[in-house]
C-alpha cells in the first residue's frame, strides 16, 4: 500500500502544498482495495491462519 493511500485512509491526506491544492483524486478505488486486503488479513488472523510464529530459545548461560 502506498504512503498516499495510507494517508488518505488515516484522514491525513497528502502532505505537500502541491498535493493538497492540486491533487483532486478521491483515491476511492485504492482505499477499497486496501481495506479489502486488510479485512482478509484480519479474518486470517482471527481464524488462526497464516501464523508465522518463530519459537525463541533461551540462551545458555555460562
Short description:
With 62 residues, this protein is an all-alpha fold.
Description:
This is Integrase. It comes from Ottowia beijingensis. The protein is mostly helical and 62 residues long. The protein has one domain (3-46). Helix content is 52%, strand content 0%. The chain has helices at 3-9, 17-22, 28-46. The radius of gyration is 19 Å and the shape is elongated. It starts with a helix and ends in a 16-residue tail after the last helix. The relative contact order is 0.12.
Strand and helix layout:
Blueprint: H1 3-9, H2 17-22, H3 28-46
Structural category is mainly alpha
How many beta-strand runs?
A: 0
| Biggest sheet layout | none
Count up the helices. Answer: 3
Strand content: under 5%
| Order of helical and strand elements | HHH
- Oligomerization: single chain
- Spans with pLDDT under 50 lasting ≥5 residues? none
Q: What is the helix fraction of residues, given as a range? A: 40-55%
**Radius of gyration over C-alpha positions, nearest whole angstrom:** 19 Å
Shape: elongated
Mean pLDDT: 80
How many domains? The number is 1
How far apart the termini lie comes to: 46 Å
Characteristic terms for this protein:
about 0% strand; about 60 residues; elongated; mainly alpha; 3 helices; single chain
